[in-house]
Specification:
Metallo-beta-lactamase, Chain A, 2 domains, 13 helices, eight-stranded mixed β-sheet, single chain, seven-stranded mixed β-sheet, binds zinc ion, alpha/beta
């Protein structure tokens, strides 16, 4: 058979297959969605993970829109228990996309009350409640001010709560499980810390960071068995954070690259966008540069530096190096510019630090 005949035959066969797929697209899509939904609902990644501490980025970004980075959210899995630190606007969606069930979130910890850290809370409350029929509200830990946040959201969602109960019934949507309950703690002093959970296998500590004029602002240190991680929250370079990060396996640190934000500031200036131009100038003083975060990682001797809360947006490939600047020369250990779905595994009884992608 000639090459030409083979090619013509192949094209005809492909055309027949494509036509078949098009004609039967709806039954095929129905089969696919049934299969995927059945598989997803049978999954329980919390049960299947080996014993360890796991940190996942359910939001690696900031208020600036970035296709790969949603507003702030860090998932913490300690053994079989799931916690969130901050709940930016895609928190529960990203958690779902990473294969986890928002119903399993045991508690939320807030670093501070900038909108990009709390604007996914309402959705998280509903996903957690509706997905499981929980009878207890979500505990939300935060420094002074968290009662106002939770109280305001409870008021904003009060009508939604009555609608859900009326429609699905109290057995499916128990009114007692709606929304959240504030677990407010006094903001620690500038060099201080507050131990929030203190169990033999799990300790969660809030410590003060520097995000002035925003007060209070905290970071969190999580120890599960013999593995430890620190999550910075929003902060300029901070000595208290460096102290808390001493010898931890993983440091998730926020960062802003001034050389890149300067390009955006100039673009705003050139176009008469004075408001935006002022914002790009103002944000420099309450974040940490990638190089400064690398200094902390080096001086605290951390095992892995995962950048999160990335400013500005890095919307196309090739920008990671520009973002990091001189950081790789400062910290010689492992580092990564985080994106949504990044997942760091710290198995217990081991020094291993494994990075994977769950989205
Ligand atoms: Zn922020
Ligand atoms: Zn902030």
């Amino acid at each position: 058979m000639s090459v030409k005949k083979i090619l013509v035959g192949t094209v005809i066969a492909l055309a027949v297959i494509a036509t078949g797929i098009y004609v039967f697209r709806e039954p095929l899509a129905t089969m696919a969605i049934q299969k995927i939904a059945t598989k997803r609902m049978a999954e329980n990644p919390l049960a299947s993970l080996p014993d360890g501490l796991y940190i996942g980025l359910c939001g690696a970004g900031s208020p600036f829109p970035d296709p790969k980075r949603s507003p702030a959210c860090t998932a913490v899995i300690a053994g079989k228990r799931l916690f969130l630190i901050d709940a930016g606007s895609a928190a529960s969606r990203n958690l779902n996309a990473m294969g986890f069930n928002p119903s399993d979130v045991e508690a939320l910890f807030l670093t501070h009350f900038h909108s990009d850290h709390i604007d996914g809370m309402g959705e998280l409350f509903l996903q957690r409640w509706g997905g499981s029929g929980r009878t207890e509200p979500l505990p939300v830990y935060g420094p002074t001010g968290v009662e106002m946040i939770v109280g305001g959201l409870m008021q904003a969602y009060a009508q939604d709560t009555t609608y859900r109960v009326a429609h699905h019934g109290a057995a499916t949507m128990p009114p007692s499980g709606a929304g959240a309950i504030a677990k407010q703690f006094a903001a620690p002093s500038a060099n201080g810390r507050v131990v929030l959970i203190d169990e033999p296998d799990l300790q969660i500590v809030a410590f003060s960071v520097g995000h002035a004029p925003i007060h209070p602002a905290v970071g969190y240190r999580v120890r599960y068995k013999d593995r430890t991680a620190v999550i910075s929250g929003d902060t300029s370079k901070n000595a208290n954070l460096q102290k808390e990060a001493k010898d931890v396996d993983l440091l998730v640190h926020e960062a802003l690259q001034p050389r890149l934000t300067e390009l955006l500031r100039r673009a705003a200036e050139a176009n008469g966008r004075t408001n935006l131009e002022k914002v790009f100038r103002d944000i420099l003083n309450y974040h940490t540069t990638p190089e400064e975060a690398a200094e902390i990682a080096r001086d605290a001797n951390v095992g892995f530096l995962l950048y999160s809360h990335i400013v500005p947006a890095l919307p196309f490939p090739g920008l990671d190096g520009l973002f990091l600047g001189d950081a790789p020369n400062i910290f010689k250990g492992r580092m990564k510019v985080g994106i949504d779905g990044d997942f760091v595994s710290l198995p217990v009884g081991s020094k291993a630090i494994e990075l994977s992608k769950r989205r």
